[in-house]
């Protein structure tokens, strides 16, 4: 067959039209006779089919409109403004997205409170109304809800498309496109139904939502019984019915597959039934005449058609080559429509090319922004890691310095006990001990900076604390900064960790220095504020901050300093200390007027001090054998000297394993003194093992850090470095605690 087809000669359209005309003339009379018999049924059936196809197409168009609104809502619900609950921004986005007067966007919560309503002017009071309880389970599943015709809070008759805004696995808000029924009128206008036909949109409850003819008269009316029965029987069909206004009609209906709403197209029966026979008889006569006349015009029309087809073919070829072309004017409707469609397709392709180019440019910008943000975050992380590394280094140095300071302080303490009566020697030893006490304070500050001490709030005289920092502040800030301190006459006592507070004040002072590159005054003012709070103000005369910077100043990693000079963590750490202490931290500033940093802490009372002579050392409860465990030989030897000075017999061990071996070998010990941080087995593990062997053995745990959180009762904690008096007091405490076990 293929070879036979290829052998046939091509012919022009004009010759084909003439041959077709001849054939039509031959069968005209026969076809007219057959047409008369079948025309009545055919014409009516054709009209019904057209009505059914129209109803089916419009039901799909209706689903498409609802899907478009759903897509708009889904996109809007993913907006960052929705996640941030920035409803003013969401309102602006919603108004920009939907500009038709017959539809508006509403956002509301589960309590019926609306937070966005583009129907109302901005700033207007939004209505409150509860939604049916059965809607929320649908939204909780993330599904879209299409409501049937109902009464709204603002408009009487409305329809709506609802999508959920999911938070924490459930719908926290609904987002709706609410429409008047009149919003469906464009569906009918685009379809252009014949004058005598009318269309109706009926929701899933068989209620009339809109009608192309006299719509407002019938909106909200239930469909007639015969229509409802037809709906129940099938999703599509054609029935003979009576309209709501009493007209006998043929009605074609089609239920949309998604929304389950029904589009109904109806035409009067009289229009389809009347005049069929007279029209067909006349048509039989006219057909013959037309065939004869057609022979005259066939050639000319065929020539026009062939030229039109050629013009359309050229346009299609130009479209394929992406070349510009004008739609052909053939004066043949179908060919002109094809040409117009080709021109529209060309325009759409050009618009899509432009949109794609814009999208590529936008994507490139977003990639650049994302890379810049990544670099910024990496820089912040690098600064935080440097700070963490510095903290670890500082903590390690402080720990090692503690181990070096412990035997020095112990030796000086013993020398004072033995030679303190000599005036000259006593002065020298007292001066050396005072220096070790200052070194001990310095180590405490280093440990606070390294975050190696837990928060230990206690009653502190803030005025005395700030005055005690004056030398440290002046040395840290340099000669260009004039440090001033104002304190009340009476003690201003607050409950706070003094070491962490010193670090916070030093942090604020350094920030103030950076804000005064040319130098200037820096005031520390302690104020006895109220019955409940005491405050410290740090006031500088620096550059100050604008409103935007002030708003973000306390945020972690936010800094205005150049890269490498700041981590953005200082003020957030100060704020964290105030919050953990039960107080607050605030900043006030104006550009060019300096900054005031205010720390508030809960008021406290200083404990009553009991007088204990500086050199008073408790006598041992009873002499005994002490097992002293420390991995540092110098610290261990110094501690042993202090113990022997108290009258104890000392057995030394350099590790936890050696200590356990000595306890197992015997004889029994009366006291265990162990360092906390040791390689292999730390002090806590050693104590736990010793308690299995000697449950009531008194224990003193020595540490250079904060007191560890141990689940071991009856332990006395002794901080490095210590003097003989501190050791004696801790031993007495350990024996008393062990007696209560």
Automatic annotation (TrEMBL):
Record-annotated membrane-spanning stretches: 276-299
Entry's EC annotation: 2.7.13.3
Keyword entries, A-Z: ATP-binding, Coiled coil, Kinase, Membrane, Nucleotide-binding, Phosphoprotein, Transferase, Transmembrane, Transmembrane helix, Two-component regulatory system
Pfam families hit by this protein: HATPase_c (PF02518), HisKA (PF00512), Response_reg (PF00072)
Catalyses which reaction(s): ATP + protein L-histidine = ADP + protein N-phospho-L-histidine
Protein's name according to its UniProt entry: histidine kinase
Organism: Sphingomonas crocodyli
Residues recorded as bearing 4-aspartylphosphate in the entry: 675
Residues of the Response regulatory domain: 625-735
Coiled-coil intervals: 342-387
Superkingdom, natural source: Bacteria
Family matches, as PANTHER family: C4-DICARBOXYLATE TRANSPORT SENSOR PROTEIN DCTB (PTHR43065:SF46), SENSOR HISTIDINE KINASE (PTHR43065)
Histidine kinase domain span: 396-605
One term of GO molecular function: ATP binding
Enzyme class, first EC level, given as a word: transferase
